[in-house]
Amino acid sequence: MATTSTAKAKTILCFDYGSKSIGVAVGQSITQTANPIADLTAKDGIPNWDDINQLIQEWQPDLLLVGLPLNMDGSPSEMAVRAKKFANRLHGRFGLPFAMADERLSSFEAKGEILQQTGSRDFKNHHVDSLAAVFILQSWLAENN
User: pTM of the predicted model, to two decimals?
Assistant: First the structure.
């Protein structure tokens, strides 16, 4: 007798936190796919919370995932504390569960992808942060499913 999977598809919004820009990607647990959706402007790490609220209303995520910038040796970087604070603020404002994910080399990987696809090193106009969020999310999905 065949069994039917009852796993519920979960939508995840992933944030690549930065002091000037916050990349956002959306992913889905069943298909294990992720897509870039926005590069949000931040002022000293503070986003326009209305922009984030709009994304949350549009995508109705089950989980918010925030990239955790670790040093190559696994120790927390200076930005790690700020990224954790951002994750706590997301949770406090929107009441959604959140998780942190290792984001080492995600921006490097995103820049490599842009360079390969476009031949351009003009990363400001090619949405590096949202693409980095895709890589963070895909890695997290592979580890957590």
Answer: 0.81
